TrEMBL record:
GO MF: ATP binding; ATP hydrolysis activity
CDD domains given in the database record: ABC_Iron-Siderophores_B12_Hemin
Protein name: Putative iron(III) ABC transporter ATP-binding protein
Organism: Mucinivorans hirudinis
PROSITE patterns: ABC_TRANSPORTER_2
Family matches, as SUPFAM superfamilies: P-loop containing nucleoside triphosphate hydrolases
Length: 250
């Protein structure tokens, strides 16, 4: 995937990101960090081809995401947001089966292969125990896992997740991020997730993008640590990132 001179803005007087370029390779597990309102969700939506960017392009293969038809786009990129899918009587399996929509025929019916893929996604996401449950009766953390299973079932080479660990308790947070890291590595997917959890990013990401109003500083956790780059996030605050201990200090 190639990001070319990406510029993001909602209005002429507020540019969130200017001319960002980056080439991403298969197997990358990227944590996107930055302060509230800096533009992480906007960036993920632009990379998902959901919202148009103000300038630049995002290519998968040779093709711009913005030129892809919806069916092709949804076979290329899965976007997992914290938006809540709510519909009475909708079961966990129904939601995960929606991940197969880009592959099913006009009737939307799933064949055996689709069903096997859905079952495998349920297994991988570790949510077999949620089978048969209604989606609006799940906890936030359980629902988040279901949405990840849906993205897995979508079988896209790129998965983007907006704060996948936002609602999760500590063990679940680590488990979800470890699961995503494992999928990125074993299946050679590009996975980008936004997070406010620096510890998780440092521990599991292969690369971290620090987004500030001045742009994105990208690098391996080790490199960013060595260059004290995390302090970019704490500019204008009384906090400081200790690159030796990896802790935030007053
Ligand atoms: N649809 C929109 N129209 C206009 N401005 C928007 C729109 N969506 C977001 N913004 C603004 O763009 C900026 C970036 O928002 P965005 O949601 O991308 O930030 P974020 O980094 O994901 O924040 P958070 O960490 O709080 O989720 C914010 O100032 C926000 O108010």
């Amino acid at each position: 995937m190639i990001i070319k001179n990406l510029t993001l803005s909602y209005s002429a007087d507020k540019i969130l990101l200017r001319n960002f370029s980056k080439e991403l390779s298969a197997g990358s597990f990227i944590a996107l960090v930055g302060r509230n309102g800096v533009g992480k969700s906007t960036l993920l939506r632009a990379l998902a081809g959901v919202s148009r960017c103000a300038g630049g392009d995002v290519l998968y293969g040779e093709k711009s995401l913005y030129q892809m038809r919806n069916s092709e786009l949804s076979r290329t990129i899965a976007l997992v947001t914290t938006e809540i899918v709510q519909s009475p009587n909708l079961k966990v399996e129904d939601v995960i089966e929606m991940g197969r929509a880009p592959y099913t025929n006009w009737s939307g019916s799933l064949d055996k292969e689709d069903k096997d893929i859905v079952n495998q996604a349920i297994e991988t996401a570790g949510i077999s125990y949620l089978r048969g449950k209604e989606i609006d009766r799940l906890s936030d953390g359980e629902r988040q896992r279901v949405m990840i299973a849906r993205a897995i079932a979508q079988q896209t080479p790129v998965i983007l997740l907006d704060e996948p660990s936002a609602f999760l308790d500590l063990p679940n947070r680590y488990q979800i991020v470890m699961l995503l890291a494992e999928i990125a590595q074993s299946e050679g997917k590009i996975i980008i997730f936004s997070t406010h959890d620096l510890q998780v990013a440092l521990r599991f990401a292969s690369e971290i993008w620090i987004m500030t109003p001045k742009g994105i500083t990208a690098g391996s956790p080790e490199m960013l640590r060595a260059t004290s780059s995390f302090n970019l996030i704490f500019e204008d605050t009384a906090l400081k990132f200790n690159s030796i201990t990896g802790e935030v200090e007053f």
